[in-house]
Specification:
The protein is an alpha+beta fold and 330 residues long. The chain has three domains: 8-106 and 187-207, Alpha-Beta Plaits, CATH 3.30.70; 121-182, Molybdopterin biosynthesis moea protein, domain 2; 214-295, no CATH class. It has helices spanning 8-23, 37-46, 58-68, 95-103, 135-141, 170-178, 202-205, 209-230, 238-256, 264-282, 288-295, 306-328; strands at residues 26-31, 51-55, 86-91, 107-109, 121-123, 126-127, 146-149, 152-155, 159-162, 184-186, 189-195, 198-201. The strands form four sheets. A five-stranded antiparallel β-sheet has the order 2-3-1-11-12. A three-stranded antiparallel β-sheet has the order 6-8-7, covered by helices on one side. The protein has a two-stranded antiparallel sheet with strand order 4-10. Strand 7 and strand 8 (152-155) form a beta hairpin. The protein is flat and about 105 Å long.
Length: 330
């Protein structure tokens, strides 16, 4: 690489960056637009032990990335996310953890005028902390529907002052600050991270943890159901598969009438049910309860020998009938 046109100080900066890139497993590009120098210093202190932040000019950073890419394949891809005011962050934690660390540095900040609004900026209907005075004119000049009611400055209705993406006028910015509405988000904005030959963009790194856990849980449940339905044995599916096989074996044994230690109780229950059904059909003149009573034998409370007494009565009647017939013929 020819760098004869580069000043010695800049050359040293590039060499330092290249050495840092070669030693770091994770390298990120951070947008620092709008962050005052004191806040950057405070953020550096918060990241000590987890990441290192270095502010650099974009052209020197591109040169260093190209030079370090000779030993780290794919590193030059980070140059595509370099824009605006940039810093480079190096770390040993994985890109997704690094992204969360960068997001944790972000806070709401007041607008000074001229910035593009990240979201729609509204003022809401209601009381304000201001006493009647020139503030009413300032609010109205900025487009806020303000008035004096009951000795207070109030906002008469909700009003959209700035649409997302539009620049915030200076007079609006001043009013928003007085209303303690801070529309800007200031912090380290991670645009891309390199690790192991791959560059991860912001849209990939911005993962919703709660949704990810739900998706993983659902995927695990669906995979388990599929493996069981397919009969695929694993350490997670072997118990459900054995349980299903056991139930099917019992059902087959009962259906075919094959007695085993496990199926005999089901076979007996089936036989009893069939016997009751047959008894009910064989005695149509009786009720279902009578049929079941007949199939199950005499009631347990019936006195012993009752059948014999009945037989004796029947026999006595027959003897009386024979005696009567005999008297007719002398």
């Amino acid at each position: 690489m020819t760098m004869a046109h580069v000043a010695p100080q800049k050359l040293e900066n590039v060499k330092g960056l290249v050495l840092t890139f070669e030693r770091s497993p994770v390298i990120g590009i951070v947008n620092i637009r709008g962050i005052p120098a004191p806040q950057i210093q405070a953020m550096r202190k918060k990241l000590v032990g987890r990441a290192k932040l270095v502010v650099s000019k974009n052209n020197l950073l591109r040169i260093a990335l190209k030079e370090a890419a000779t030993t780290k394949k794919g590193l030059e891809g980070l140059a595509e996310v370099i824009q605006d005011q940039t810093a480079v962050v190096t770390a040993e934690i994985n890109p997704f953890r690094l992204f969360k660390e960068m997001e944790a540095t972000k806070t709401k900040a007041p607008a000074r005028g001229g910035e593009r609004s990240p979201d729609d900026i509204w003022v809401r209907e209601g009381d304000t902390p201001f006493k009647p005075g020139p503030i009413v004119g300032d609010l109205q000049k900025a487009g806020v529907p303000a008035a004096i009611e009951r000795g207070k400055v109030v906002i008469k209705k909700d009003k959209l002052l700035v649409k997302a993406g539009d620049r915030i006028p200076r007079e609006v910015a001043q009013v928003l600050t007085r209303l303690e509405i801070f529309p800007l988000i200031v912090g380290l904005d991670l645009r891309g991270v390199y690790e192991g030959g791959m560059v991860f963009r912001r849209d990939v790194l911005a993962v919703d943890d709660a949704k990810l856990r739900i998706d993983l849980s659902l995927a695990g449940a669906q995979a388990l159901s599929l493996a069981i339905a397919a009969g695929y044995p694993t350490t997670r599916t072997v118990r459900p598969l054995l349980s299903i096989a056991f139930r099917r074996a019992i059902a087959l044994a009962v259906e075919s009438g094959f007695p085993t230690k496990e199926s005999v109780k089901f076979l007996l229950a089936k036989a009893q049910a069939q016997a009751l059904a047959l008894a009910a059909r064989a005695a149509p003149e009786g009720t279902g309860e009578e049929a079941r009573r007949r199939a199950s034998g005499p009631p347990s409370g019936e006195p012993k020998g009752e059948g014999k007494k009945t037989g004796e009565k029947e026999e006595s009647s027959e003897d009386q009938a024979a005696t009567g017939l005999g008297s007719l013929f002398g």
